[in-house]
Amino acid sequence: MTLLRDEGLTAGELAVWRMLQRAQVRVARHLESELLVAHDLPLASYEVLMQLAEAPGGRLRMNDLADRVLLSRSGLTRLIDRLQRDGLVTREACADDARGLFAVLSEPGAARLAEATPTYLRGIRGQFLDLLDAEEIAQVRRMLAKLGAKLGAKLGDGLGDELGDGLSAPAPDRSP
User: b/e for 85-114, b at 16 or more Cβ within 10 A?
Assistant: First the structure.
């Protein structure tokens, strides 16, 4: 196909990209379905609750949270609106920045997260980890760590640490 050659991609390179996208989407769809059926909790909501639970004090600035869950600021605002309506998070004003807001994990949010986590982890195991042997998992980990580090350096978007090897400490809370 000339379009591929014109853009400098081989058919094999494009196939790898598409396979990566499809694998991620298929696993995410399965997780979404399982979380909705068992806990009435969309995957994006689970990810927000998990990020808040892992953050110091169970809270993150909205901008930092949007970066961590890979949502636009407006998309995160709408999601936090729904989670707040459901009592799973609260919002707090930032004392040092009148425009800044924190999303804070509530007790009901922590309880909902605790209920949903076994389903989430079983889904990851069943739809991803159990399909690979230990060496393949190590290879994927190395490749994704390399990709994450290079993307972080190239894009300067602050996401490199979070896409790294998974062993480094969570990104620091950039709140004042």
Answer: eeebbeeeeeeeeeeebbbbbbeebeebbe
> Please, what's the largest Cα pairwise distance for the chain?
57
Nearest-angstrom CA–CA distance, 149 and 62: 24
With respect to residue 6, please indicate whether it lies within any of the assigned structural domains.
no
| Ranges in the chain, pLDDT < 50 | 1, 162-176
Q: What is the rounded distance in angstroms from the CA atom of residue 119 to the CA atom of residue 30? A: 11
Q: Which value, to the nearest 10 degrees, does the dihedral of the CA atoms of residues 130, 136, 139, 141 take?
A: 0
Residue 5 falls inside a structural domain: no
Its sign, for the CA torsion 125, 46, 33, 142, is: negative
| Angle made by CA atoms 10, 159, 173, in degrees to the nearest 5 | 175
31, two tokens: 């997780």
Angle 99-169-171 from CA coordinates, rounded to 5°:
20
The CATH number of whichever domain residue 33 belongs to comes to 1.10.10.10
pTM: 0.83
